[in-house]
Amino acid sequence: MRIAVLGAGAWGTALAIAYASDHEVTLWARNAQQVADMARDCENARYLPGVLLPASLSMTADLPAAVADAELLLVVTPIAGLRPTLKALAALGQPLPPLLWACKGFEAGSSLLPHQVVAEELPELPACGALSGPSFAQEVAQGLPSAVTLASEDADFARRTALALNSTRLRLYANDDLVGVEVGGAVKNVMAIATGVADGLGFGMNARAALITRGLAEISRLAVALGGSSQTMMGLAGTGDLILTCTGALSRNRQVGLKLAEGKSLPVILEELGHVAEGVPTAREVLTMAERLEVDMPITAAVCDLLYHGASPQKVVEDLMGRAPKSEAGERLA
Ligand SMILES: NC(=O)C1=CN([C@@H]2O[C@H](COP(=O)(O)OP(=O)(O)OC[C@H]3O[C@@H](n4cnc5c(N)ncnc54)[C@H](O)[C@@H]3O)[C@@H](O)[C@H]2O)C=CC1
Ligand SMILES: O=C(CO)COP(=O)(O)O
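^ Those are the sequences you sent over. The predicted structure of the assembly is below.
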């Protein structure tokens, strides 16, 4: 298949490398200098250092050229880049092939999930869906075994495309619960920040397991309120990605939490990271949605207090632990 990967950060580059062995792949970056550097060095030194770009991978900063013959578009910008990229595609004024996105989050300001942004900007697409699940870019780029979910409301498209993209290194599972898959991918990043804070403060393994489990309960409640299935939360895009991101040292969101626990300020942390940490803008949108839908999300609220209201990590933990006792299903005990 001819695939255009749009966005050449860590994840776009890793997916382009992964698919280049079985498909004709073009990697598009908006920055022409970055493309020239990658072509010269055979490496994406800024976003995915140390991994060789295969000779079969085409690279360009020319969007019309990248899209011209493509049979599948894969948008892999951060969520903040999704709408601008879709607008640029719409401006080409030509029929487009099916499109997948791999960004994880709620759009800042609108609180929309990626599929809602896609529906607004490219309503004429023949088919579309999300790629999500536990998949650190560095590991996928090295060809280590990974499994992810390809979700679309068009179940037939999800199955056909998962079949076409499946490989022995990057296994794909089809799913028709697009909302559940997107909510899982978005909110696990907020939980990874919380877990990083708890680990950074030395709260121990019990606290980590409690955060992950109660985090999953929050994610499930929101997913169901938005029309997703709680079953999806037991899969790769739910529990799978939550465990990976909350515990894996490669997670940028977890690193944000660890650095917050060291007492660093958010601007300094983001500057040091040099990559997107989607949980930071998404936490606020998740809380907005939770309040709108009357879904109880105390860990998300705590992360927002930390990130945006100057609360200390110690105070946030005290507040979380001091809440009224509840049943595991969420009813107050008194
Ligand atoms: N890195 C990873 O392991 C994984 C990342 N993701 C998701 O993929 C998305 C992208 O993440 P990364 O590639 O890791 O981020 P990154 O921080 O490594 O790179 C971001 C890239 O997007 C580009 N970009 C930003 N705004 C853009 C725009 N308007 N148009 C075109 N390009 C734009 C930047 O120039 C940069 O190349 C995020 O939503 C992330 O949550 C999903 C799975 C794994
Ligand atoms: O989504 C990811 C792994 O599935 C990457 O997580 P981070 O953005 O926290 O690095």
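The pocket of NAI (ligand 1) is lined by residues 7-12, 30, 47, 76-81, 84-85, 102-105, 135-137, 275-276, 278 (CB under 6 Å). The chain has 15 helices and ten strands.

Shout if you want it in another format.
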